[in-house]
Amino acid sequence: MSQGRAYVSKAVRGLAAHRAAWSEVGRRILLWALFLTLSGYFLWSAVSGTHGLLSFSEMKKTRERLEKENLELLAKNHAMEKDIYLLRHSRAYLEKTAREEYGYVYPGEKIFWFDEPGDGTTSGRLVADHGPE
């Protein structure tokens, strides 16, 4: 009977060792699965998350577009400031602007508008007459 117990005891110890070995393998597999899952998540987050590379690239394009728009607006603002200065301080510029943009004429002036037909001839027609006839 003692040999039977020894055999059972040896078998139980072998089974326990076998279980312990499989438990260690299971833990390692579980740890590797957890590591790969977390690594995948962090990689995905770094590429396409709200603060990822794709978002950063889009924000960079938006920034460049806004900087370009800002430079265009600064140039337009500078041109308008120059226009305002000239309108306030140059009578010749004021007169030129009034004539070209608003159609002002001096009393007694006649304005002719020349049409250019396709055959190369020109004909004049009186547009405005501001004066005595």
Word description of this protein:
The chain has 133 residues and is mostly helical. It has 3 helices and 2 strands. The chain has helices at residues 2-48, 53-89, 91-102; strands at residues 109-115, 123-130. It has a two-stranded antiparallel ribbon. A hairpin with a 7-residue loop joins strand 1 and strand 2. Helix 2 (53-89) packs across helix 3. The longest helix has 47 residues, at 2-48. The chain is rod-shaped.
Keywords, separated by commas or semicolons:
mainly alpha, 3 helices, 133 residues, 2 strands, two-stranded antiparallel ribbon
In short:
The protein is rod-shaped, with a radius of gyration of 45 Å. It contains three helices and two strands. A hairpin with a 7-residue loop joins strand 1 and strand 2.
